[in-house]
Amino acid sequence: MNFVANIVETKFSEVLMFKDELECCEEASKINSQALQADMNELRNGIKFVENELQNHKDAPVREIIDNLFLIYIYIFCPSS
After folding, report:
1. What is the DSSP string of 56-79?
2. Contact between residue 17 and residue 28 where contact means Cβ atoms under 8 Å apart
3. CA 81 – CA 77 distance, rounded (Å)
4. pLDDT in tens, the chain (81 residues)
């Protein structure tokens, strides 16, 4: 066992910090997977909306696009509006 420990210490010293990197796992394990999935779905829907808006306005004059940006931001941050 000492041999393995010495090899790890000399050649793979970054592995010794592995335990420290696991500290955040305890907090992460408390996240509800259903809530995370719902958040991911909401983000996907928002991205699809923006993609559709960009596709719908790709040939529009620049002024019209700028005028509509406010509406896009309102929808993204307040979808119930």
Report:
1. HTTTS-HHHHHHHHHHHHHHHH-T
2. no
3. 9
4. 778 778 778 888 887 787 777 777 777 777 788 888 999 999 999 999 988 877 876 776 766 766 777 777 776 776 665
Residue 31 DSSP class: S
Stated pTM of the model: 0.43
Could you give the dihedral angle defined by the CA atoms of residues 67, 72, 74 and 78, in that order, rounded to the nearest 10 degrees? 170
Please, are residues 46 and 72 in contact by the beta-carbon 8 Å criterion? no
CA neighbours within 13 Å on the CB side: how many for 44? 6
CA 79 vs CA 22, 43, 44, 53: distances in Å: 37, 12, 14, 15
